[in-house]
Automatic annotation (TrEMBL):
Domain annotation Aldehyde dehydrogenase: ranges: 32-486
One Pfam family recorded for the sequence: Aldedh
Top-level lineage group: Bacteria
Family per similarity comment: Belongs to the aldehyde dehydrogenase family.
Taxonomic classification: Bacteria, Pseudomonadati, Pseudomonadota, Alphaproteobacteria, Rhodobacterales
Protein name from the UniProt record: Gamma-glutamyl-gamma-aminobutyraldehyde dehydrogenase
Amino acid sequence: MENLLTHEEYKSIARGLLLPTTAFVDGVYRPAASGATFETINPATGEVLAEIAACGAEDVDFAVGKAREAFEDGRWSKRAPPERKDVLIRLAKLINRNARELAVLESLESGKTILDCETVDLPETIHCLKWHAEAIDKIYDQVSPPSDNHIAMIVREPVGVVGLVLPWNFPLLMLAWKIGPALAAGCSVVVKPAEETSMTALRVAELAVEAGLPKGVFNVVPGTGPEVGEPLGRHMDVDMVSFTGSTETGRRFLRYAADSNIKEVVLEMGGKNPCIVLEDAGNLDRVAAHVVNGAFWNMGENCSATSRLIVHADVKDALLARILAHAREWSVGDPLDPGTRVGALVSRAHFEKVAAYLDAGTRTHLGGATEGGAWVHPTIMDVEPLSAAAREEIFGPVLAVQTVQGLDEAIALANETEYGLAASIFTTDIKRALRGARALRAGTVTVNSFGEGDISTPFGGYKTSGFGGRDNGLHAHDQYTQFKTIWVDLADDDDEAVG
Ligand SMILES: NC(=O)C1=CN([C@@H]2O[C@H](COP(=O)(O)OP(=O)(O)OC[C@H]3O[C@@H](n4cnc5c(N)ncnc54)[C@H](O)[C@@H]3O)[C@@H](O)[C@H]2O)C=CC1
Ligand code: BAL
């Protein structure tokens, strides 16, 4: 990549970074009300990067209050759409101007490779914000003609104060997926970053104010799930929560909403995503490259990662040979080395969770090993259909392989999961591809490729993978918008009144 720096240059930038460590509320950085802090660790070195404000219910309440004030006085919610667009485009440009610093910060906190941060996370974050900004003044209200004597306007209004609860695997991109449409709609937001990765969200909130976003509209409250996420989920003055993370925590947000003000809840949760390769898949080398990318990109810490390979017996050996050849190219190493493809897992605790699955297969084809308490080598293993490794979300670079004899068996096995986020199918027969794609119970199905789609296409899951709406696409704007119907009676004053 011609724009990448050297390993030494990245390390030098890392040493010089100014780290944002306190909450960002009402346009300024401020410590937690209690003064408490927690350590944020660089997972690749085990070193403490910074002490971050450990916020709690009092801080959440303060941030929600400021977000509410901002929403009600209309400083953002009632600004003309073209003006909101200009501010968000300025924010995208500021992120672009600070992209290198943000990429290094993202990599340091999360263990993600600098290669991905520079070439995927930052460009996609910037593109996402621009895309939603550009959409703001192109979404029209509607008029319904119920009768000659009536007219009904269907108008969109911002939902209000929104809580955005983020995961650690794509800290910046998930922030953008949520603030893009939320701010575009005119909402005020209170962001709760994952405790492993608080700093890039804090820095983006600061840049947003520099871009002209009024204070109080974009607040960030760092802290743990129980101390910040729960009070946000239970807050009586939060109108909606959008969450990305585990299915277990997603369920909690439904309970919080039910027990409080029945706020709207949108959940993007786990996956155990199948990749079906049929005997007529065509160029197996190309298929293998997709499978390896789907399984090991971002260390498999990706809700839509290819975590199950369901392969036809006739091509299994040939495909596996090519998969192993591609996977061996994925070098494990320091995330700040631009040659590294597999960085550190996000935390020691997560490393231990993933490592516990490494001997759960019936036969290991590759990997099965760890390194330095932070790295898991790309691992490929055969698994039994009902085993934990075949059913549970591992969220690491582990590919579970199962063999089938035909399409129907493959579909049945693919759907035999509580999840339904993503799936892929490889075949050169268009009818089989479409029959398979329709039968797969997943929010995104890719044919002859691996991918999550594009900012323009909705992303979310079936079954326990998703609830309440979709990220991305214009559909995402619906989440952050209330529809109001305004009826007008067009009858003359002396006509008989009818309902
Ligand atoms: N769908 C996805 O993209 C993600 C899935 N996961 C899955 O979840 C597993 C566990 O990872 P975690 O980081 O523990 O995920 P998590 O779902 O617990 O964390 C996601 C967010 O929810 C917050 N949270 C945690 N407990 C909470 C609570 N009781 N109330 C309110 N908010 C709470 C966290 O602080 C974080 O901001 C992973 O191994 C992986 O399988 C994790 C991250 C992202
Ligand atoms: N793959 C984007 C959503 C996520 O993994 O959190």
